[in-house]
Amino acid sequence: DILSGxxxxxxxxxxxxxxxxxxxxxxxxxxxxxxxxxxxxxxIYLGLALWxxxxxxxxxxxxxxxxxxxxxxxKIACILTLARFxxxxxxxxxxxxxxxxxxxxxxxxxPTDKVNDDRLYRGLDALLPFKDGIFxxxxxxxxxxxxxxxxxxxxxxxxxxxxxxMDDNPMAKRGYSRDGRPDCVQVCIxxxxxxEGFPLTYEIFDGNRLDxxxxxxxxxxxxxxxxxxxxxxxxxxGMVSENNLEELREIGAGYLVGTRKAMLTKFExxxxxxxxxxxVKPDVEVKLxxxxxxxxxxxxxxxxxxxxxKEKAMRERQIKGIEKGLEKIRRRLASDKYPLRNRDxxxxxxxxxxxxxxxxxxxxxxxxxxxxxxxxKDKIRLSLRVxxxxxxxxxAKM
Length: 398
Known about the structure:
With 398 residues, this protein is an alpha+beta fold. The chain is 39% helix and 20% strand. It has a 5-stranded mixed beta sheet with strand order 5-4-3-6-7. A 3-stranded antiparallel beta sheet has the order 8-9-10. A two-stranded antiparallel ribbon has the order 1-2. Strand 4 and strand 5 form a beta hairpin. Helix 1 (42-53) crosses helix 3 (73-86) and helix 2 packs antiparallel against helix 3. The protein is extended, with a radius of gyration of 33 Å.
């Protein structure tokens, strides 16, 4: 009866006096009820549970023992990690608004007035010397919890820029900006992860460092940290060079790397042959081919309907942008009220146009032609002569 929910607690009886059960309901005056100091709890509690599950509390308590500081650096590390996990933002945002709106002060025992941006920034400095130890600890926990083998490594590079001179940071330099901010100095961040997304290490390089020049150094770092086991490196075409591939072959590692589109001309026959393709996803097919020079490498040809449609749409947008820009220049040249007479200015306008739509610029050959003005015999009138690549219509239909 208890399990079925039909159990009823008997009434108490003292001195033959029945005591009624306590009421199961109560009247509440909603107009007088109010919520005070509402704080976030669910995501914070989950993040803290993961922190303990990964035994990061034990790791930092052992390495960052409290000395003279008011708040242990181990707890600052926990706060920084949970903030990144729950609400990625700046250290200033964490101290000004985020921390006070969570239940972390009760869960980790650090009062709100003790969490300020200066302490958080200094906490990052305190964490930096333990970078390698943190990755080694996490690698061991990944192995214990998930049985990961770490035989496939995904490597890529991103960048982050600074809105300042950064004179005290010799690594901050101008280079290829993935954020579209070539006006700012930056640093490059190299990251190695597993196929599941678990990070294994990261390194900081100068902002003007070319991606292809970092591979050899990252291979050496990974071997020093995690041994000399045979692994498979997965990288995009920006990392590919013959020197890098030769380095991987010498250490007995495998690789799966992107190749430049110019290589497709060597596989024209295989691409046109409709047989031998394997569908790996609803819109993706692959085919394995031997290397043209009979080396030990195997090439994987891929074709995707989704990618084809995306590139088609990109090309069409580029073509429409160029056509619209050329028509605008034509109207300016043909204007009787304010005609363009400066040939250099027209060339600069064309340069900006083709720089903006660079993907389709190679299809157009535009020259500025000089003609005598029919109204003013002593003046030269400019016009555009546009030659369109014969493949333009084919590209637009692909």
